[in-house]
Amino acid sequence: MRIVIAEDDFILREGLALLLRAEALDVVATAGDADEFLAAIDAHEPDVAIVDVRMPPTNTDEGIVAAVEARRRQPGLAVLVLSAYVEQAFATELLAQGSSHLGYLLKERVGRVQEFLEALHRVANGGTAIDPDVVAQLFARTRPNTALERLSPRERDVLALMAEGLGNAAIAERLFVTDGAVHKHIRSIFAKLDLPPTDRADRRVTAVLRHLEDAQRRA
Predict the structure, then answer these.
(1) How many CA atoms, within 13 angstroms, populate the side-chain half-sphere of residue 164?
(2) Which of 14, 104, 130, 210 pairs with 94 at a CA distance of 20 to 30 A?
């Protein structure tokens, strides 16, 4: 796995590089701003880009803009976005482009090395990895009496784990239920949200995110 890291904090950037190299992963370049990052994408054609949301010169959305541009230049590039806290607008903007090969994690998750590495590999393999705290805050910010209110507590648990990018087996393991029970909850969720049922993980997550984005617009 060939990786480019874009992070303006030198200590975090080098710490990430050391961590990944210790796991026998190939960090081909690091960058401190968006221009350096895009130059590295063109030069090295990596499999995965790890990108900070806020980068110089304005420290607003340079990282998100650069990530979108990198995916345009290199279709299929896996992108794992890091943020110091939940950037709701940036999260929904990026995820609206499609959930395949995409992750959005809070920087504190990097300290939980195993979780971080699992998310990185999931994104590299074409899946989705959304920080549980991001999912929780997106749910919390939806207004009452939306379609989400029709879901049972267990269905909300399943939906949150779906939005993180977990498949049926992983959800069953996390909730200590059977695969069959998870499948039943998912069918019920899609029925209540008026979304077409499917077992394809990417499409499930995309549907969940679109629903959350719609709820955000109405809030």
Answers:
(1) 25
(2) 14
148 and 49 in a common domain:
no
What is the extent of the structural domain holding 98? 2-131
Measuring CA to CA, which residue among 17, 13, 126, 127 is closest to residue 2? 17
Which tens digit of pLDDT belongs to each residue from 106-136?
A: 888 788 888 899 889 989 998 888 877 776 6
Kindly report the CATH number assigned to the domain that includes residue 24.
3.40.50.2300
Please name the amino acid found at residue 33: D
Are the C-beta atoms of 163 and 99 separated by less than 8 Å? Answer: no
Q: Is residue 136 part of a domain?
A: no
Terminal Cα-to-Cα distance of the chain (whole angstroms): 41
Q: The tokens of 125 are what?
A: 């393999």
Residue 182 lies in a domain: yes
Across the range 59-71, mean pLDDT stands at 87
Distances (CA, A) of 101 to 66, 94, 119, 187: 16, 12, 11, 25
